[in-house]
Amino acid sequence: MIETVKNAWKIAEIRNKLLYTLLIIFVYRIGSAVPVPFLDYLVIQNWVETAGGGLGFLNSLTGGAFGNATLFAMGISPYITSSIVIQLLTVAIPALEQMAKEGEEGRKKLTKITRYTTLGLALLQSVAYYLLNRNTYAVQYTDGFPGMFSAVVIILTFTAGAMLIVWLGESIDKRGIGNGISILLFAGIISGGQNLIKSMWLYIQMAQAGDFQYYFLVPLMGVLFLFVIAMIVLMTNAERRIPIQYAKRVVGRKMYGGQSSFIPVKVTMSGVLPIIFASALLSLPGMIKGFITTGENDTRTIIRILGWFDYNTILYAVLYFVLIIAFNYFYVAIQYNPVEMANNLRKNSGAIPGIRPGRPTAEFISKVISKITLVGALFIAVVAIMPILLGSVAKMNIALGGTSIIIVVGVALDTVRQLESQMMMRHYKGFLE
């Protein structure tokens, strides 16, 4: 990976793209430090740390911007949510499905719809964030400004920050290297890595002070961290190849076909989307609790019930595990259509060796995808809940969770692949011409 970056840096065009990407990341980090007026970030930070769960996950994705109530506090979550929603609706709504099949013009229309959806979600989340802050007495009104004015300023600032992030991500797509939104997500998570170093240093000091259990736990965490990274790299690149044999056919004086190929089915087809879905769903009880609670001494039945869904409970871990697997199957089901794949193979005179064309081929592809999806879903679910279980057993705060590691490693691998492909294009430029 390091060698790839070194070689890419030697090419002037790629170097300019890398510098532009770094510039956008720098602007993104500046926006993550610009405070929003009328808010006391210390109160909000304490509230986020107490709530944990999905709010803590959102805070880690934004590099602490959510907990510090800065311009980019909403992060890229409105854009990710809107993208997923529009992608799902293209399967359910024929008009959107037709747009997706219209090529470049159709993609432009879907992109515009996604932006408007992002604006609506960002505005909705900004209003909810403001109300949560008001309920926790985080809003501090300045003398001379009415409450309505401060509310409008806060909501519009958060919304504008979310849309500015979308523009920054699209700028990287056009002039930089890698997927823009993924790069910004990567930068936010990496910026929070200092909390991991601080936590490890604190545990080392506790071990030196006489708490000998940390002499074993700290090295164990380091080994486990490296093992998880290695497994993520392995599973991200792993795929099941379904062999395809194309029949020979004669057109004029030329013979076509007779070639062997394969259909690659990746083990982790859905990536981290099931985790994002599950986290968003399980964060709802915590957000409702933040709306209706009156303080730490609130012992109402509804508050106790919502407390069952706290981040460090067994119920949360079990539901998290089940939802990740369920969303994984759901996302794969809308992405892969075995019947359509079997029909395309038949139209192109292709067949799976030993499997009859038509319905048997569709059933075989469906069975393979189902098995591979189960393996990938179990892997992602185990990695996602591992920090929760380890934190509960070892009484340690795992600052960099399994989800964050999956995102960081996945974005790094994808960016390196893009660098390699661009270098290969320039290396063979004269040959192609």
Describe what you observe in this structure.
- The chain has 433 residues and is mostly helical.
- The chain has a domain of 192 residues: SecY subunit domain (Preprotein translocase SecY subunit, Orthogonal Bundle).
- The chain contains 18 helices and five strands.
- The protein has a three-stranded antiparallel beta sheet with strand order 4-1-5.
- Helix 7 packs antiparallel against helix 8.
- The two termini are 29 Å apart.
CATH class division of the domain at 1-192: Mainly Alpha
The largest sheet is:
3 strands, antiparallel
Return the CATH topology of the domain at 1-192.
Preprotein translocase SecY subunit
- CATH architecture classification of the domain at 1-192: Orthogonal Bundle
Low-confidence sequence ranges: 138-146, 428-433
Structural class: mainly alpha
Oligomeric category: single chain
Read across the widest sheet, the strand sequence of neighbours is 4-1-5
The rounded Rg comes to 25 Å
Annotation keywords:
433 residues; mainly alpha; Preprotein translocase SecY subunit; two-stranded antiparallel ribbon; 72% helix; 5% strand; globular
Summarize the entry for a quick read.
The protein is mainly alpha-helical and 433 residues long.
Set out the fold topology.
Elements: H1 2-9, H2 12-31, H3 41-51, H4 53-61, H5 77-92, H6 94-100, H7 104-135, H8 147-175, H9 180-191, H10 193-208, H11 213-237, E1 239-246, E2 249-251, E3 254-256, E4 260-266, H12 273-292, H13 301-307, H14 314-335, H15 338-347, E5 350-351, H16 359-394, H17 402-427, H18 429-432
Antiparallel strand pairs: 1-4, 1-5, 2-3
